[in-house]
Design goal:
Blueprint: H1 3-6, E1 21-28, E2 36-40, E3 50-53, E4 58-61
Antiparallel strand pairs: 1-2, 2-3, 3-4
Length: 73
């Protein structure tokens, strides 16, 4: 996933994007192999909950293969 499609960087006031993570999850990054992903829930600059790899800065959709959201709030 493109991080820009998930996180809104276009803050009109130019404030730095402040991400709040909710800990690491069991899933690991497909690119980094054994780096665990961080759970990012929906917040000010985040359009929907997703999983984020701090190692390669990749975002991953938190959905099951059938399209159902894996994260419900
Ligand atoms: Zn990664």
């Amino acid at each position: 996933m493109n991080p820009k499609s998930v996180v809104d960087h276009l803050d009109p006031e130019g404030a730095p994007v402040d991400l709040t993570t909710f800990g690491t999850v069991r899933e690991t990054c497909p690119k980094c192999q054994n780096h665990h992903l961080n759970l990012i829930l929906r917040q000010t600059n985040v359009r929907f909950a997703h999983l984020f790899c701090t190692e390669c800065a990749s975002c991953f959709d938190a959905r099951y293969p059938d399209g159902a959201p894996a994260l419900t709030i």
